[in-house]
Amino acid sequence: MKKVEAIVQSKVSKQVVNAIRKIGVEGVTLIQSLGQGEGERLEIGGQQIEFNSTDVILTVVPDSKVKEVVSEIIQVAYTGEKSDGKIFVSDIEESYDISTKEKS
Predict the structure, then answer these.
(1) pLDDT (tens digit per residue) in 10-67
(2) Dihedral (C-alpha) 75, 78, 79, 85: value to the nearest 10 degrees?
(3) CA 73 → CA 83, 96, 97, distances in Å?
(4) Which residue ranges form the domains of the chain, and what is each CATH number?
């Protein structure tokens, strides 16, 4: 199993979640956050905004599904801006179901 963690602009996060759900991803966690990457800082009312509104999307998928999930995230989250986000993929060594106390 792999954990796919995508940091995307808030304006596209719900579309990303819907897209990966449509291709069979069941469990998804969406965390609203503020981020600061390489992109330009917006200016609102003469004040430069230090952090951009970003969301973190987390899911765990079988190894065989990683390329499809990553491809879908890139396709939906791409806005053409330098600060579109990042995707991280990491191995999951073990997982446990809290309600059943079983290793899954």
Answers:
(1) 999 999 999 999 999 999 999 998 776 666 666 667 766 666 778 999 999 999 999 9
(2) 160
(3) 15, 26, 27
(4) 2-37+50-93 (3.30.70.120)
